[in-house]
Amino acid sequence: MKDLPARRLLLVHAHPDDETINNGATMALYAAAGAQVTLVTCTLGEEGEVIPPDLAHLAPDREDRLGPHRIGELAAAMKELGVTDHRFLGGPGRFRDSGMMGLEQNHREGAFWNTDVDDAAPHLVEVIRSVRPQVLVTYDPHGGYGHPDHIQAHRVAMRAAGLSADPGYRPGLGEAHTIAKIYWNRVPRSVAEEGFARLRDAGVDFPGIAAIDDIPGVVDDSDITAEIDGREYAERKAAAMRAHASQIAVDGPFFALSNDLGQPMFVREYYQLVQGDPGAPPGEREHDLFAGVPA
Ligand SMILES: [Zn+2]
Fold first, then answer.
1. pLDDT greater than 80 at residue 85
2. CA angle, corner 227, sides to 48 and 221, nearest 5?
3. How far is the CA of 292 from the centre of ligand 1 (A)?
4. Residue 150, annotated ligand binder?
5. Which amino acid positions bind Zn(2+), per UniProt (predicted)?
């Protein structure tokens, strides 16, 4: 087996921009520390709503060229974060953005939501067995906020993690590998509340302010098991968010998606360990996702 960096982090996301919003500071921090950071994005985000009027022609109901455009945005964002290994599940365009829950796009041929988990998972097994990450980060079973591609990304990531560890499962995809720790993306309720209070006080230019329920993965503080202090990488994260210009409008430490509702950008990022041994004493948060992982 080829030489691998000592610490290897894999993140599985649904669309370009999800990685930066959820984990941008974490990714920049570990990349700067010499860890291998691998991002797998499951779709090109073809169904995203376009914010800048001069890019509106890319939209799926017009030229339908948003996917290729977002490949470029993602590459620019990863450059800002210092992440060199970013891939699309099964290759670019293999699975299409399914749109918001309930839309007819959910059932389109090739839509990620319309794909059997067991047809998508082998593509990720191949990545896992090649990169051999000790840590996997993905969404919770609700996909953080119910978007079909986020739910499916969760299912595929969890299924692939299990299959990768089984030596009897498709040996042609590489030598079996067990991921030591699996985390779901989270935001503690108190942090979300504090962020929105800051946003209201700041009086930014967005037409409205989002609600806490609009923020994916908000849970009670007691569910948080890991907290990554990414303040040193706040500028990197903001720059990466600006790189996703078709989807995100950034205003200082705040941003808005296509709904024009302001929300706080978090540079401390939070996680819940759902598989593997915690690297902190009971009741204490980890401050390193690799804590407790044997060298
Ligand atoms: Zn998304």
1. yes
2. 85
3. 31
4. yes
5. 15, 18, 150
86 is in an annotated binding site: no
Sheet strands (E) in the chain: 8-13, 36-41, 85-88, 135-138, 181-188, 208-209, 218-219, 226-229, 249-251, 254-256, 261-264, 268-275
Domains of the chain and CATH, by start = 8-188+218-247+268-275 (3.40.50.10320)
If you measure from the C-alpha of residue 236 to the centroid of ligand 1, how many angstroms do you get, rounded to a whole number? Answer: 20
Confidence class for position 2, pLDDT limits 50, 70, 90: low
pLDDT of residue 205: 83
> From ligand 1's centre to the CA of 104, what distance in Å?
18
Q: 229 labelled as ligand-binding?
A: no
Task: Tell me what the mean pLDDT of segment 148-163 comes to.
Answer: 98
Distance between Cα 149 and ligand 1 center (Å): 7
| Measured distance CA(219)–CA(23) in Å, rounded | 17
Distance 15 CA to ligand 1 centre (A): 5
The interaxial angle of helices 18-32 and 66-81, nearest 10 deg, is: 30
The Å distance, Cα 106 to ligand 1 centre, comes to: 14
Query: pTM to 2 decimals?
Result: 0.97
Q: Give residue 284 CA to ligand 1 midpoint distance, Å.
A: 30
Q: How far apart are CA 131 and CA 71, in angstroms?
A: 22
Collapsing DSSP states into helix, strand and coil, what is residue 111?
Answer: strand
- Note the pLDDT tens digit of each residue in 239-293: 999 999 999 999 989 999 999 999 999 999 999 999 999 999 999 999 999 999 9
Average pLDDT of span 32-59: 97
